[in-house]
Structure prediction request, 76 residues.
Amino acid sequence: MNNRKTIDGTQRDNFARYINHSHKPNCEPNIVKGRVWIDAIKSIKPGEELTYDYGDEYFEEHIKPYGCKCVKCTAK
Ligand SMILES: [Zn+2]
Prediction:
């Protein structure tokens, strides 16, 4: 058994769009041949929210103006 699960981002109307940004993510996106694959980087409990780090550029433009709501940033 291993914890890595891959979700094809092209299925379900681009699944990756429903994954929220976090600075302490449990997934990471990998782009392979133009498709986004989401790999779990730690074990995820059923019902647990999937998150990944959107990256600095996206963060500065789209998240920073509203404030980051991720676990790491709200736990201050
Ligand atoms: Zn954050």
Observations:
- Residues 11 and 28 are 17 Å apart (CA to CA).
- The longest strand covers residues 27-32.
